[in-house]
Amino acid sequence: MSIAPAPAVTLGNRFARELPEMAVPWQAAEPPEPRLLVLDEPLAGELGLDPAWLRGPDGVRLLVGAAVPGGATPVAQAYAGHQFGGFVPRLGDGRALLLGELVDGGGRVLDLHLKGSGRTPFARGGDGLAAVGPMLREYVVSRAMHALGIPTTRSLAVVATGRTVRRETPLPGAVLARVAGSHLRVGSFQYARATGDADLLRRLADHAIDRHHRPAAGAERPYLALFEAVVAAQAALVARWMLVGFVHGVMNTDNMTISGETIDYGPCAFMEAFDPAAVYSSIDHGGRYAYGNQPAVAEWNLARLAESLLPLLDDDQERAVALATESLGGFRTRFDAALSSGRRAKLGLPGGLADAVVGPLVEELLALLHAGRVDHTSFFRALAVAARGDAGPARRLFTDSAAVGDWLARWLALGPDADAMDRVNPVYIPRNHLVEDALAAAAEDDLEELRRLLGAVTAPFDERTGLERYAAPAPPDFGDYRTFCGT
Fold this sequence. Notes:
Helix content is about 45%, strand content about 15%. It has about 475 residues and is of the alpha+beta class. The strands form five sheets. Strands 3-10-11-9-8 form a five-stranded antiparallel sheet.
C-alpha cells in the first residue's frame, strides 16, 4: 500500500482509534489493472475531491485502496448479525474496508468504504472479491434512491480490477467505493454486547450518539434516547421504501444502520406488479424479507438492538427491559404515521381529511392493485393524469374497470392535487429488466445503456420525451425475476 500523492486527501481514523476492538487494520488487495468504470462527479465535489484527479491513475488507486493518504488507517470492521433469523456472533467486513472518514463541504463526517477489495480476517472462506455486475447494481440503485430522497449509502465509483472473479461462471472483478454517514449497524452493537465488554458497548454507543444522534447526549437517559432515535430513523426509512415499492431483500441485522441509511444493495429490486408477497432474492426461500414483511422485520431487528443495549439502559434488568419495550412500541406508531402521510401525498389528498375517510379508500385501492397485478409506479403517475381529467390511462391498467371506476369517482370527489402528486410519484425507477440489460452490456464493456439508465433514474420525477422505455413495465417474457448477493 502506497501513499496517495497530491492533491491532498485527508482521511480520518476515528473509528479505528476509538473502537480498536472492532477494527482490524488491513489493506486492500492490489488490483492488477484498475480501470474506472463510473464516477459520481457531483458526489465527489460534495466531498471536496477533484473529479479530474479521481479519474487519473492516482485517484483510481485511492478508489481501490491501493494508495491511501498518510495518517489513514484502513480497517475491516467487526460486527455480528442475525442472518435470516439465525445469529452469527462474528461476521464483519469479509470483503470490505473502511478507508477512513472524510469531512464534506457542510462539515459532515462521512465514511469512505470499499466493497470487493479482497479477503480480510472476516472472510470466512470467501474470496473477498466482487464482480462488475453487482457493484454496478449498487451504484445504479443507490443513486436512484438518493434521487428519490431516500436516506442511503451513496456510491462514489466503481473500478474494474482486471481480476477474474469466479462465481457460477468467471466474471470480471470490480471494487465499489461508497460513502455513508457511518457503517455502524445493529450488528455492531450485537458484536459489542456478545464480547461481554461493558466498556466497549458504552464507547460504541457514545460514538454512535456523537456521529448520528447528538441530541441524545443531553437526555436524562442518553442510551435510551439513542435507541429511540434509531427507532424513529428506521420507521421513517422503511415507510419510504414501501411508498416507492423498494424491496431490500436481505434485511439482516448487520444490514440495518444506526444512522437510518439504506445499506447493502445485494438482492434488492423495485416491485412492479403490486404484491405484498413480492420476493426477488434468490436465497429468501420462505419470503422472510418480502415487500409486505419489511416493517415487521425492521421492528424485529430493532428488538435485537434493544437487547444489545440493555446493560446501558438501567442497572436493573427488569427495568431496562420495560424501558426498551416501551420505546420499541413507538416504531409501529411512527411507521404507520409516516406511511399514512406518504400515501396521502401519493394520492394528492388535501390536508384535514379524516382517517376514517382516507383509510378505507387506501385499503380498497391496495386490494384493487393486488388483484389486478397493476404496476405500482405506473399507476400513481397515471392517477395524476386522472386528476387532470383523463381517467383513461389509469382505467386501462385494470382488468376490472367497473371496480376501479367506482374507486376513481370517490377519489376524484376529494379534490386531489395532480401537481403535488407528480412531485412525489416517480416516473422512472431502476426497473429490473432495464438494470439487467445495462449490467449485461457492461459485462461486455459497453456502458452506454448504464449511462442512459442513470440519466433517467437520477431525475425520477421529471417526465422527458424519448425516455418512454424507462417508464414502461417489464415485457411479459421477462419472467420470474431473481437477484443474487454476488458473494
